[in-house]
């Protein structure tokens, strides 16, 4: 992935390097934070894909005959609801290890029918989707890849792509029929009761393979277009490094904020009284399911750790600038304000 480089902003004056180092080295002069070595190694093994910039596609969606969804919570249930709401819906079959979730998915109309076991897909199935916790996917993806019809393609919706990809890499034929896809949307709430038909409408979806016509990745991208999402292609190694910054780091920051507030002693009982929109926005992610995020963060630890190191350095620099009432603080705040406009216009 190369390097994460601090970016200069026109019109913002910087102090000398020695002064920046005195403020906790929040503007490192010679040592930009590098992506983990393992990311670069992954990319070297698949260099053509790793260098590929994200490509947006707008394929003419082709409705598959049958789509099988394994995992009928928020993510899988919402996909089923969106597919079945189309004027020309595919047949959607589903499976969930929790029988209560499966029954509710059927009652809510997220699926046409339930599978009795995960290994018995409909013979006409064209796309198989796994919307399960990441560590469950490591065992389920190879199992389904062997059981599904030979013309079908399989996609896993985990927030981390490389582990599931590795689980099928030993068998080239299976590997060719698998591609990860990660919808960049969701909710701090989980389960089939939180599923909704419009969850993916307008949402970006990263597909972990080249979107060549007729390829498994293009077929998966077409499925996402059917529900109003915006698919684009990105190499799996690059995806995992990117979401460590844009998704996993915000989750940890939100958790850290709430844990800090939990340690405020006799002020704790007054927090609700003083909580405004800022706190509610910043703490929302901390309400996400702990089990799911334990799996995501530990599976992507080698990408999340350097992102956290960079974040810790920035927090340390801000703290020192505040303590010293240093005018540099204004520059730090202004840089953040300007860059926020670039990444979230």
Automatic annotation (TrEMBL):
MF terms in GO: NAD+ binding; prephenate dehydrogenase (NAD+) activity; prephenate dehydrogenase (NADP+) activity
Transmembrane segment boundaries: none
Domain Prephenate/arogenate dehydrogenase residues, every copy: 65-345
A GO BP annotation: tyrosine biosynthetic process
InterPro entries: 6-PGluconate_DH-like_C_sf, NAD(P)-bd_dom_sf, PDH_C, PDH_N, Preph/Arog_dehydrog, Prephen_DH
Basic and acidic residues: compositionally biased ranges: 39-58
Keywords assigned: Oxidoreductase
Chain residue ranges for the region called Disordered: 1-59
Protein name: Prephenate dehydrogenase/arogenate dehydrogenase family protein
Organism, as annotated: Eiseniibacteriota bacterium
Taxonomic path: Bacteria, Candidatus Eiseniibacteriota
């Amino acid at each position: 992935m190369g390097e994460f480089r601090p970016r200069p902003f026109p019109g913002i004056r910087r102090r000398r390097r020695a002064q920046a180092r005195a403020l906790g080295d929040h503007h490192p002069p010679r040592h930009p934070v590098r992506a983990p070595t393992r990311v670069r190694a992954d990319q070297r093994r698949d260099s053509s894909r790793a260098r590929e910039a994200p490509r947006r596609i707008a394929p003419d969606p082709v409705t598959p005959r049958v789509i099988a969804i394994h995992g009928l919570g928020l993510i899988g249930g919402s996909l089923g609801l969106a597919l079945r709401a189309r004027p020309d819906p595919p047949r959607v079959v589903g499976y969930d290890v929790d029988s209560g979730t499966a029954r509710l998915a059927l009652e809510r109309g997220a699926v046409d029918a339930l599978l009795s076991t995960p290994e018995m897909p409909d013979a006409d199935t064209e796309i198989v989707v796994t919307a399960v916790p990441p560590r469950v996917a490591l065992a389920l993806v190879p199992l389904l890849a062997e059981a599904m019809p030979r013309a079908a393609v399989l996609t896993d919706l985990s927030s981390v792509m490389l582990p599931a990809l590795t689980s099928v890499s030993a068998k080239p034929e299976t590997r060719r029929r698998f591609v990860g896809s990660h919808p960049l949307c969701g909710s701090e709430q989980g389960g089939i009761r939180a599923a909704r038909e419009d969850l993916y409408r307008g949402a970006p979806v990263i597909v972990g393979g080249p979107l060549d016509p007729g390829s498994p990745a293009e077929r998966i991208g077409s499925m996402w277009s059917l529900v109003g999402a915006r698919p684009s292609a990105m190499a799996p190694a690059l995806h995992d490094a990117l979401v460590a910054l844009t998704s996993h780091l915000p989750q940890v920051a939100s958790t850290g904020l709430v844990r800090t507030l939990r340690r405020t002693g006799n002020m704790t009982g007054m927090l609700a009284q003083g909580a405004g929109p800022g706190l509610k926005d910043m703490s929302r992610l901390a309400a996400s399911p702990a089990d799911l995020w334990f799996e995501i963060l530990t599976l992507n630890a080698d990408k999340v750790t350097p992102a956290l190191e960079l974040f810790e350095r920035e927090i340390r620099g801000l703290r020192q600038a505040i303590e010293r009432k240093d005018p540099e603080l204004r520059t730090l705040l202004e840089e953040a304000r300007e860059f926020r406009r670039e990444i979230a216009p």
